[in-house]
Structures are given as C-alpha cells and as structure tokens.
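User:
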Amino acid sequence: MATGPAGSFARSVPRTLKSIFDRVRNATTSSPARFAVLVFVSLILLFTALLSLPAATNAGRRLPLADALFTAVSTICVTGLTTVDIASTFSPLGKTIIFIGVNIGGMGVLTLASILGLVISKRLGLRAKLIAASDSNPLRSHGGPVNEGQTVRLGEVGQLLRTVALSTLLIELLVAIALFPAMLVAGVAPLDALWQSPFYAAMAFTNTGFTPNPGGLEPFADDYILLTILMIAVFLGSIGFPVIYTLWKHVWHVRRWSLHAKLTLITTTALFVAGAAAFLALEFNNPKTFGSMNAWDTTFQAFFLSAMTRSGGFSVVDVGELYGSSLVVGSMLMFVGGGSASTAGGIKVTTLAVLALAVFSEAKGRPAVQAFGRRIPSDVQRVALSVVAWGATIVALSTIIIAQISQEPIADVLFDVISAFGTVGLSTGLTAELDDPAVYVMALTIFMGRIGTVTLAAAVAATTSSQLYSLPVERPIVG
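Assistant: Predicted structure:
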C-alpha cells in the first residue's frame, strides 16, 4: 500500500477527477440550456483555433482573428455568412473542418447539449427531457408539470435524439448520392464531384449555404435538377427534427400528426408560395435579376429565391441587385425562418402561426386560441410574443450599432443583420466589407439568433419561482 506524499497524491487524483465529473454531470442535469450555451461557445472557440491553423488556408498563413472567429461562428451556427471567400481561402483541410462543424451545429443547440448530457450522466434526467422537449415545441422550460401542448412526450425524447442523428446522416447521404450524377451532367470532374456532392448536401440540409467551388452556384444556374435537389434538402432541414420524426412515424396518417407538425408544414408551404409570388411580381422586370429570363426561368428562380431566403442561404442571382421592395420581402422571410428544433433560424414558423391564430381568434371573439380541434395554451402565446419581441430587439440594436460603425446604407445593413439573426447567409455584399468591430457585432447577432431567444431566457434565469397569490386586475388602454 502506498504511503507518504506519493500515496496521498495518488489517492487525491481520482477524487479530483470524480469531483470534476460530478460538477459537469450536475451542470448537464440542473440547467441543460445554460450548458448548451457553454457547449456552443466552446465549439466556436475550438473551431476558431482550427480555422486559424496555417494548414487550413490555401495561402499557408493564419487567418486574421476576426475572419477566423466569424467563420467559426457562421459554421457552428450554420449561417453561411462569411467575410472571406470559402472556395479560394480555405484548403481541403479547412473545408473539411467547416464540413464537420456545420454537421455538429446543425444538430441544434439543445439537442447537442442533451446528447452530451446523456453521455456524461448515462441518462437523461427529467429536467433535461423537459428542456429538450420544450425546444421541440418550443416552450419555456419550467419546474411545473409538463404542458398539455407538449409536442414530444417525455418518453419519446430519447427516440427523438436518435432520430436527429440518424436522419442527419441518412438525408445528407441520399442528397449527396442524388447530387453526384447531377454534377457529372453539369460538367464537374468526377473527383471534384465526389467531394463537392457531400459538401453541398451538408450545406443544404443544415441550411448553411457555404459553397466549396469558385463562383458558388453560378455554374449551376441553369441546372434545375441540381437546384431542385438543393431546395428539397433545404426544406427537409428547415421543417425541424420533430416534424421529421412525426412524418417518419405517421406519414400516411395525417390525423395522427401533431399540431406542431401541421402548423409547421402549412405555414412553411404558405410562406414558400407567397414569397415566390412576391419575388415574381417585384423582380420580373429587373434587368439585373429576372428581367432577362423567360417566363419558366423567372418562375423557377422566384421559387428558389423564396426557399433560400427562408434559411437556405444559396443564391443564383446577385442579392445586392434586388429592388429595395424585394429586399424587404426577403428580410421578412428571413426573420420568420424555418421550423422549431431545425437547422433553420429566425423566430420560427410556429411562432408566426401561433400569433396569427391568436389575432384571428381575437377578431372572431373566441375565448381561446384553437386549431385543428386543439386549444393552444396561453403560455405558448406568451412565449411566441416574447420570441418576436426579443428577436426584433436584437435586430434593431445590431442594425443601429453596425450602421453607426460602418456608415453604410441602412437598407443593406438591415438585410445582412436579419440574415445573420435568421442564420440565413444571404448578403448584399456588406458583410465582407465590414471592419473588425462590426464583424464582431455581426458574429454576436448570429450566435444569439442560432441558440434562440427561448434558450437564452432559460439560460439566464437561475430559478423559477411560483406566485401563490394574484394581484387585483386593472385594464390599461391598449391600441
């Protein structure tokens, strides 16, 4: 038996490791949302260091800190905005790092935190399941009973997490297989197509929009098969993993679809068609975008632009050449984003749907908000309103700060800021020209848009308290 200082040191090491392990485990189970924020920050710092390696660039030199940090944030937060040209700046190693990063980030902040918590604690605690389920709903996590509107039941969270990982791998593999022959037909060399197809598949499903080849999608501007495959992948990534999970279980039984799935699919389709119609009406006579195209090309490109402004980030036309009215439409679509617990950003389509239903119910004089034979609880409506308010506040503050720093036209600044908040990746060309202080502000906007305002609220709130009494009612004048 070891004695003396050496023996004491040998005994203290396991105790220290156990103490560290217990603290990490407690962090995952007591506040998974806060732990998720910490995970994302750690990943961003890690990928900033990796992208700063000289071997990660074609020039063999370190990237400036601002560019490396911004690219890491855009990668982990699956945004697609960039201050440098991905194709010409990064080496095959750098592009591989980006490929891995977008797949990690695409799994979602709370899903990733729940998986790590599961690995560390060997099980998902009740509070962790509540957090994971609330991200899928989304609902604010609380210490009370599970809300009746919970989209994913607690017993299904483990299955949902497996669905996230498996669906990501499977869908990206199928998209890559579909893209490979399309790229060969488009004239891409077989070896180039062999690595570009999975890269594009990952960027489409995660709604990132990075392109590995010079010119981006310009060489494929007339290849409607390839562009359609990208649109389908973007759609699957933007509807959210809970919807994919529901469709996987009840694809032919619409009545068994959850309310969340129904609202997501209906609102997504409605915005896709409405956005395309708006772009078609506003840009058909713009000689720098759709004006030189025939009717079929104009219609297809309008639908493609509508899909990409939802969160996809790919672009065939020069966004900076769109009319101001089209930029406003694009900003509105980007602000809404995609589905909850998806690779898309924004305030989410279900948030918009809940608020629209609340307005409709108020106009009809109904005592409760309802849809498809289900009542939507008031706390869901409050969360939806809070998400919109916080999102608008973030966009407004970022726009003011960046506009003051850069002194660029406010329309261009607002579009790029909303693109950052919605983790879309489209740009008027402003982001690549920003000075370092504005780049850091834009990176923070991306981070806050990706992790979500509900996650931020849950991470900041240390405890939840119950109020066992009610105050007297007094109605202020509204409107």
